[in-house]
Amino acid sequence: MTDINTDQGIPAPEGAADIIETDYEIGQDNIETKMGPIGLDIHNPVFLISGLSIVAFVAYALVAPGQAGEFFGWLRPALTSNFDWFFLWSANIFVLFCLFLIVSPWGSVRLGGRDATPDYGYPGWFAMLFAAGMGIGLMFFGVLEPVYYFGTPWGDEPLGVVRPFTEDGALIEENVAEARRMALAATSYHWALHPWAIYAVVALALALFTYNKGLPLTIRSAFYPIFGERVWGWTGHIIDTLAVFATLFGLATSLGFGAQQANAGLEYVYGLPNSITVQVILIIAITAVALISVLRGLDGGVKVLSEINMVIALLLLVFVLVAAGAGTILSEFGRGILAYFQEVIPLSNPHGREDTGYMQGWTAFYWAWWISWSPFVGMFIARVSRGRTVREFVTCVLIIPSFVCLLWMAVFGGAAIEQVIADPAGSAVKAQVIDSYNPPLSLFAMLEGLPFAAITSTIGIILVIVFFVTSSDSGSLVIDTITAGGKVDAPMPQRVFWCTFEGLVAIALLIGGGLGALQAMVISTGLPFTVILLLICVAIIKGLRAEPRG
Amino acid sequence: MFKKVMVPVDLTHREKLTHSLQCAADLAKLYEASLVYVGVTSGVPSSVAHNPAEYQEKLADFAKDKAASLGISSEAHTKMAHDPATEIDDALLEAAEEIGADLIVMQSHVPGLMEYVWPSNGGKVAEHAKCSVLLVRG
Q1: Is A90:A527 a contact under the CB 8 Å cutoff?
Q2: pLDDT(B9) > 80
Q3: Does A14 map to a domain?
Q4: Is it the case that residue A197 has pLDDT exceeding 70?
Q5: Among residues A470, A60, A513, A502, which one has the least CA distance to residue A260?
Q6: A189, A308, B19, B114: most buried by Cβ count inside 10 Å?
Q7: For residue B87, which of A384, A474, A1 has the smallest C-alpha distance?
Q8: Where are the transmembrane segments (chain A) (predicted)?
């Protein structure tokens, strides 16, 4: 909590900002009512439409699981293979756009007005944006992805690099160095600049139109320069509803799959049964902790958990770094950065490629995935970024997380590939990723090859679970704000509702089937959102041009 | 007996605050105390203001109006909270310390079923404030 000048009647200068004059008053469409003893303050009609359509889609997936699975199972790959060039080019544009903002004169525009001070210090801010946006992916893909590219027998080698294994699984020495280099470059490509540029674009637009232009903190506000006053009508209702939809289903399906992964880990490490019951218990536990977190609020809950999470993740990173040999891994990190910069241009060029397994199956899939998550992560980043200049903001949301991801992939991927090379026949990583494909076990298989595996695997499981909590609680805050028409102080029962609802949807889909179908549906929303994000870049430029600089 | 009376104000629902405002003004007159209206806002635009500076301005105007109509001396004090829904009690307690209030006059609704789950803000302030607290039902 910061203090504002208390001099009688003289406003604390937040400095000049270009407030947009609109007749729309925040909360004018809201219904404030009481349901029994519970007070409500909800946006009409976004709250009801999103709630009901989510129930309808869950019902559809439960009643006709085959049909839903078939349709979305066809739709998602159809989109990523036909529009691969569009996804790749759009992501490139977002990166260039962000890099341009850093060096442009608009970099000095401050979010929140010229004299605003940052709401959060660097560690807390960074922990929150990282834990909400990506943490869980790092746990899941940190070992899996580099090892997969290194030795895949399924023909997904990036840029046609030669596989370093013979048919019977023996290592071909002369191909190892290049396969290893390309594995790190190809993984880093999916985790460094591009995804963060996608998040940065959405987050910057929302922060700019909220803090500087005075529009409500909800997705539709970013479209004001394009649609004008129409964003307060059905155009805006549809945008917001879509965002709620993508966020809730994205969170719920990840939560469902996450419970399966955590269960697989528990089975592998402790021999716990792999059953729906254990998974449901995991979802309930994650939801309960997320609930406590949202009730404690942004500072007392979400921020604290994110920070704890980052500290544990850092400890695990340092452990793997030391245990796998700091010298080897750090030189791997150096080679990884070099490889990334050498290969990022060929990897991001969609034309004349023959490695469609990689480009469509992985890259286009990832881009659609990041983009479908961008309303949620972008809005959460915006919520905690008031007071930063555009230059600081883009640097911290784009460059620093990219660097951390490069490091993470070099450490976890590097250590894992090292194990595969050292003993191809006996490596647990090779057994779980290359010989048979068990993605959730990849991390634990790598830890098994290092000392103190029992302890570090337990920490790994805890980390997976807590990363789900930090996505779940920030997601609930985001959905609550959107469905309250941009109000951040809506009654607490609404937060409880969305947080619980997310857990219930996950449980229903887990028991009834349909997790895969609905996740495919969420990723399919990546295509329309990509068009939307390109429009948002235009809106940002329009908005920044009107801002006072300095 | 009292020198500085703090009155928490929710500018969004200011029309509902008649009881606590009147009571605070009467007490201020009786003890020749000064009134401080305290508002809590977040950095996010609300129905009241586009940004915290504008909120502070509006609260100051509100205080000026009250001073004129009630014939008392008053000032405004704005606190910023990242997540007002959960931090309002702490923000108010901090404000009381900062302005050196010796009495807080606060509106509180009639408790119902929900108060068993969520204690009211007034209740929490009364529990933790170092100065006197008067909760006015209404």
Answers
A1: no
A2: yes
A3: no
A4: yes
A5: A513
A6: A189
A7: A1
A8: 44-63, 83-103, 124-144, 191-211, 231-256, 276-298, 310-330, 364-382, 394-417, 449-469, 496-515, 521-541
- Is A80 within the bounds of a domain? yes
**Interface residue A503 vs chain B (CB under 8 A):** no
Q: Which residue ranges form the domains of chain B, and what is each CATH number?
A: 4-108+130-137 (3.40.50.620)
Q: What are phi and psi of A506, to 5 degrees?
A: -60, -45
pLDDT, tens digit, for every residue of A505-546? 999 888 888 888 888 888 888 898 899 899 999 999 999 998
Please provide the average confidence, as pLDDT, over all residues in chain A. Answer: 88
What per-residue confidence (pLDDT) applies to B53? 86
Supply A472's token pair: 């779940």
DSSP, residue by residue, A325-361: -HHHHHHHHHHHHHHHHHHHHHHH--TT---HHHIII
Q: Which of A6-20, A398-412, B111-125 has the lowest mean pLDDT?
A: A6-20
Burial class of residue B34, CB neighbours in 10 A (0-12, 13-18, 19+): middle
Domain holding A331: CATH number?
Answer: 1.10.4160
Q: Rounded to an integer, what distance in angstroms lies between the CA atom of residue A206 and that of residue A93?
A: 19
| Mean pLDDT of the A89-112 span | 95
Name residue B7's beta-bridge partners. B37
Q: Following DSSP, what letter does each residue of B59-128 receive, concatenated? A: HHHHHHHHHHHHT--EEEEEEE-SSHHHHHHHHHHHHHHHHT-SEEEEEEPPP-GGGGTS--HHHHHHHH
CA distance to partner chain B, nearest, from residue A488 (Å): 7
- ipTM entry: 0.86
Q: What is the pLDDT of residue A20?
A: 78
Evaluate if residue A549 carries a pLDDT over 80: no
Q: What's the pLDDT band for A3 if we cut at 50, 70, 90?
A: very low
End-to-end Cα separation, chain A, in angstroms: 26
Is residue B1 classed as helix, strand or coil in its secondary structure?
coil
User: Cβ(A294)–Cβ(A301) under 8 Å?
Assistant: yes
Over residues B62-77, the pLDDT tens digits come to 999 988 888 888 899 9
- Residues on chain A touching B46 (C-beta within 8 angstroms): 26-27, 487-489
Partnered with residue B135 across adjacent β-strands are B106
Total domains in the fold of chain A: 1
Quote the domain boundaries for residue A404.
30-545
Q: How far apart are CA A524 and CA A518, in angstroms?
A: 10
Q: Looking at the complex, report in whole angstroms how far the Cα of residue B129 sits from the nearest Cα belonging to chain A.
A: 18
* Residue A2 belongs to some domain of the structure: no
Q: Which of B51, B61, B81 sits opposite A214 (nearest CB)?
A: B51
Is the Cβ–Cβ distance between A369 and A87 less than 8 Å?
no
- How far is the CA of A123 from the CAs of A107, A402, A415, in angstroms? 22, 16, 27
Instruction: Supply the pTM of this predicted model.
Output: 0.91
Q: How would you list the strands of the sheet with B34-41, edge to edge?
A: B74-80, B34-41, B4-8, B103-108, B132-137
Considering only CB atoms, which chain B residues are within 8 Å of A12?
52-53, 56, 78
Say which DSSP state A165 is in: B
Beta bridge partners of B38: B8, B77
Q: Is residue A150 part of a domain?
A: yes
Alpha-carbon distance of A522 to A83, in angstroms, equals 16
Residue bearing tokens 């469609």:
A356
pLDDT tier, A329 (very low <50, low <70, confident <90, very high otherwise): very high
- pLDDT at A12 > cutoff 50: no
Contact assignment for B80 to A4 by CB distance below 8 Å? yes
Whole-angstrom CA distances from A235 to A242, A448, A515 are 11, 53, 29
